[in-house]
Each structure stands twice: as structure tokens, then as C-alpha cells.
Amino acid sequence: MVQFNLPENSKVLKGNYFKDTTGSVNIKKVNIYRWDPDKSENPKIDTFEVDVINCGNKVLDILNKIKNEIDPSLTYRRSCAHGVCGSCAMNVDGTNTLSCMKSHKDISGDINIYPLPHLKVVKDLVADLSTLYRQYESIEPWLKNKENKSQTIEINQSKENRKKLDGLYECIMCACCSTSCPSYWWNGDKYLGPAVLLQAYRWIVDSRDEERKERLKIVADKLKLYSCHTIMNCTNSCPKGLNPAKAISSIKKMLATN
Ligand code: SF4
Ligand code: SF4
Ligand code: FES
User: Fold this and answer.
1) What is the pLDDT of residues 197-217, one digit of tens each?
2) Does any ligand 1 atom lie closer than 6 A to the CB of residue 62?
3) Cα→Cα distances 114→46, 56, 105, 146, Å
4) What is d(CA 243, CA 201) in angstroms, rounded to the nearest whole number?
5) Which residue of 77, 129, 174 sits with most ligand 1 atoms within 8 Å of its CB, as the best mutation to test the pocket?
6) Do 239 and 83 contact (CB within 8 A), yes or no?
7) Taking the CA atoms of the chain, what radius of gyration do you get in angstroms?
8) By C-alpha distance, which of 209, 211, 207, 216 is closest to 251?
9) pLDDT of 6 over the 70 cut
10) What is the DSSP letter of 115?
11) Probe target for ligand 3 pocket from 88, 92, 96, 125, with the most ligand atoms within 8 Å of CB
12) How confident is the model at residue 50 (pLDDT cuts 50, 70, 90)?
């Protein structure tokens, strides 16, 4: 059997235990991945006992409570707290999700929280999304008209054409899908991944855009597009209920029939 040896400093160790000090009768144990680039220490899992009586329902409320009342050094991203900005994506209980949408009441037992998987960690729960943003930029996610029409006149769209954007425009680029895709784990530097490909498709099918052919050319690449093997993890993990796998197969179909 093949044996893999991980480098010594990649082992996740047991961290600090923060005992409840409130005497609450409803305590949840929350295990959180911690890593600080400024300390030359291994990553560790800290455990916090959290009084969930005096806490909102969402996992993000628990994180805010820990940061405000127990350990201010806990680091994570968040902004809107309403599933709109996509910044609070993380792995909760083994699933990539938005912590502001996930209710901790749905989790029985301890809550385990990690950063989005298979990305470099910036600090604690903050994953490095710079490659994903570069890939997003590469598909040129803005309306393109040959004569810059959109700057001078209103470009109308029929109801039928507008409908084609449903299930696409709602994407908030949270990266839950891409970081649950095995093809993206192994080839994240070359394969665009489900989030960026869904966005690419959103512009390809926009009737107001005049660069469909050029857009298809940008993604028509063995590694950028065809690394998708229809495993469907992406669709299963999207917290907005979108279907990036379907968008990817629609791009493949367009390329095969155009
Ligand atoms: S498709 Fe869903 S999971 Fe993927 S980036 Fe968009 S909103 Fe997030
Ligand atoms: S369907 Fe494609 S993009 Fe989605 S998880 Fe599978 S390989 Fe990744
Ligand atoms: S904080 Fe904006 S989506 Fe969660």
C-alpha cells in the first residue's frame, strides 16, 4: 500500500479549550481551525463552549459571539450576513456553505468549522481566493458591445432572453462549488472550476452581449473546461441552489454544436 508522509508542520494539532463562563444550560461545543502565519506553529483546532441561548441562530452568529466575547483574535470573513456578499463561505460540519445562512440548530452534536478546502489559508477561516479571482477576471465578466453601445443607449432585452439568465445571475461567487470540486482541487491553477464557468456561461447567454464567439473561444480548452467530469459536487454544495454543472454542460453543448 502506498504511504504518504505529510510534512511535520502540516499536522493539525489539538489547540486551546475555552470553557463556558456563563453557566448557561444550553452549551454547544464549537471546534474551529486556527492558523496564524505570524507564528511558526502548526495549525490547531481550538474548542469553544458557546452559550447558544444568548446567540442568534446562524453559525455566523456563533463566530461573532466567540470573537466579541471569548477570543477577539478569531479571523474570518463576513459582510452582509444575509447570503448576498458570499464572503462568509467556509466548511461547516463537512459541507461548504455560507455561515450566515446555515443554522446551528440543524447541527446535532459539536460543530466543526474549517476554511474552504484545498486553498491556501491566509489566517484561521480565511482562505486565499486570489487564483479564483484571477480566473474570474480572465472570462471578462462585463457586458461587451462592439461600439460601446451600453454607454450611450439603453439596450433592451425581451422577457424570454432575460429569463435565460435565471439561475445564473444569482451567483455570488462564494466559491463553495469550486472548492468542493475534485477536479478543481487537483488542477485549480488550470481548470477554471464551476464558479467561474457558471459566470462565463452567464455572459455567453446574455442576449445583449456581442462577443459570444470570443467568449466561447476563451473557455474552449482541454484543461480550462473539459477537466469537469460531471461529478456534481458543485451543484450539491451551492448554498444559493444554483446548478453550475448544468451551466458547464451547456457550454460544452454549445461548443459541440456551434
Ligand atoms: S454557483 Fe453557487 S456555490 Fe458556486 S460561487 Fe455561485 S453561488 Fe457560490
Ligand atoms: S460537475 Fe464538474 S465542476 Fe461540478 S464538481 Fe463535478 S467536476 Fe467539478
Ligand atoms: S456574510 Fe455575506 S453571504 Fe454571508
Assistant:
1) 999 999 999 999 999 999 999
2) no
3) 11, 20, 18, 45
4) 12
5) 174
6) yes
7) 21
8) 216
9) no
10) P
11) 88
12) very high
Q: Among 16, 18, 11, 71, which Cα is nearest to 41's? A: 11
DSSP-assigned beta bridge partners for residue 112: 31
Burial class (CB in 10 A: 0-12, 13-18, 19+), 107: middle
What average pLDDT does this structure show over 36-62? Answer: 96
Alpha-helix residue ranges (DSSP H) falling in the chain: 59-65, 130-138, 159-163, 182-187, 193-204, 212-219, 233-237, 244-257
- Cα(first)–Cα(last) distance of the chain, in Å? 47
pLDDT digit string, tens, across residues 220-256 = 988 888 888 888 899 999 999 999 999 999 999 999 9
Kindly give the distance from the C-alpha atom of residue 192 to the centroid of ligand 3, in angstroms, as a whole number. 23
pLDDT at 174 over 70: yes
Question: Are 94 and 43 in contact, with CB atoms under 8 Å apart?
Answer: no
Q: How far is the C-alpha of 247 from the C-alpha of 253, rounded, in Å?
A: 10
Cell numbers representing residue 238 in the block? 451551492
Phi, psi of 76 (to 5 degrees): -160, 165
Please say if the pLDDT value at position 160 is more than 80. Answer: yes
Chain mean position to CA 140: 20
Find the helix or strand (DSSP H, E) in which 89 lies: strand 89-92
